[in-house]
Amino acid sequence: MPSVEANGIRIEYVEQGVGDPLLLIMGWGAQLIDWPDGLVDLLAESGFRVIRFDNRDAGLSSEMDWQPPSLLKSFVLGTFKRDIPVGYTLSDMADDAAALLDALEIDSAHVVGASMGGMIAQTMAIEHPDRVRSLTSIMSNTGDGRNGRIATKLVPRMLKHKPTRETAPELGVELFKHFAGPHFNPTEALERGHQRVARSWRPAGSGRQIAAIAASGDRTEGLKNLAMPTLVIHGLADTLVLPSGGMATAKAVPGSQLLMFADMGHDLPEPRWEDMVSAIRIQADRADHANLHAALT
Q1: pLDDT for 130 beyond 60
Q2: Which end of the chain is more exposed for a tag (fewer CB within 10 A), N or C?
Q3: Hey, which CATH number is domain 3-151+203-296, 3.40.50.1820, 3.10.105.10, 3.40.50.720, 3.30.70.60?
Q4: In whole angstroms, what is the distance from residue 216 CA to residue 218 CA?
Q5: pTM: predicted TM-score of the whole model, two decimal places
């Protein structure tokens, strides 16, 4: 896979397809390979130049070296809006995404983010609106601390989750089944877990990312000012980011579209891929039509 130097770090990325540039931003602790291949194929077939990349502190992109607070401390300080000592925030990660577009000589792209990636995508739309043609926020929240919180029953499991490189695939499956939807396939999840660990193992990076989320604050006011076509997707069975997160995001962004699936948790289930791709394509076409109209008037 190729990489570029952008925003002072190395960013690993991969491209597929030709057409309108579509930037995919993955979530907490996840890598570009966590976007399902079949979903990426469908996006490419629908006329997108699909660009996936590893966020900083994940996959093969640059690893930072500051010491993050514990997961519990990040949860507590983030919940009560206290200062958290961090080396970067979601704004820096949004700057990474914009800098990747610069390196690829892309003026603007349709931007799709999942979970933490949705938070980064929202931040990018707020802070770099000229770079975002359309925005899709999947299973994410606004950072307001009230909506889209983790289900209380899941917190002890998250705090007890302390995998090693050897145990990470199996323990990941055990944890993931508690917030994935009804289409969760443990065999596929285990195989993906082994692929993920073989490619990169960065538990401290995940700690830094969750601290960055907790330190980044509420995006609601910024979302109210967005003017690009926006799609919000969320699963009603999501317990890691409760569905209220998607509802609050859609409520905040003027004219946004909200798409919710009863059979989706905190995952990207195959039976919903075609629906997602169709909705993303519609938003992209809305944006392109609006841009063409503006250019002609």
Answers
A1: yes
A2: C
A3: 3.40.50.1820
A4: 7
A5: 0.94
